[in-house]
Design goal:
By secondary structure, the chain is mainly alpha-helical. Helices cover about 70% and strands about 0% of the residues.
Length: about 170
């Protein structure tokens, strides 16, 4: 199977799940998928691959560890929000210690994205969760996140308000 070719055919949950199942049969297939995900010359394929990468990441999170630096770069540069959303969701669901080699860059990116009203709410929600997970142990980062959330809370979308309220409650414990 060629994931790029399959992603070109159709964009659906069923297709993404089928490609993810194929990748999950053999870790060596992950390189092919990740090449599609990181391909700047094929933005539509890259965007569609984000759904597949998310499925693989939830099933085998440790498989993406060799790609941590490249994944970190995704949240640092402009691009389709689907890529940032997939990466931030992965970062929000893994053990924070797994992200330690790039924690500073990840927290910086997560705070920047949380603070950006132009980002889709899903990106901002996963970004604030990442910042809370990685920065919660550092009082100055927790204070920065708390202040940022309080500024954006009034008038924000329901998803943002819900996650921000939960994180604010956790930060005050």
């Amino acid at each position: 199977m060629d994931p790029s070719e399959e992603l070109t055919r159709t964009h659906s949950r069923e297709n993404a799940d089928r490609i993810a199942a194929w990748v999950l049969e053999d870790v060596s297939r992950l390189d092919v998928l990740m090449a599609s995900f990181f391909d700047p010359d094929e933005p539509v394929i890259s965007q569609r691959a984000a759904m597949v990468v998310g499925g693989v990441a939830r099933a085998r999170p440790q498989w993406l560890l060799p790609y941590l630096e490249a994944l970190t770069e995704v949240i640092e540069r402009p691009g389709h929000p689907a890529l940032r959303r997939a990466v931030l969701r992965y970062f929000s669901e893994v053990e924070p210690r797994w992200l330690e080699p790039f924690a500073g860059r990840i927290v910086d990116g997560a705070l920047r994205l949380t603070d950006s009203p132009s980002e889709p709410v899903a990106v901002r929600v996963f970004a604030m969760q990442v910042a809370a997970n990685l920065g919660g142990a550092y009082p100055e980062l927790a204070d920065e996140l708390r202040a940022m959330l309080l500024v954006h809370l009034p008038g924000s979308q329901a998803g943002f308000r819900s996650r921000a309220t939960k994180i604010l409650r956790d930060l005050t414990r």
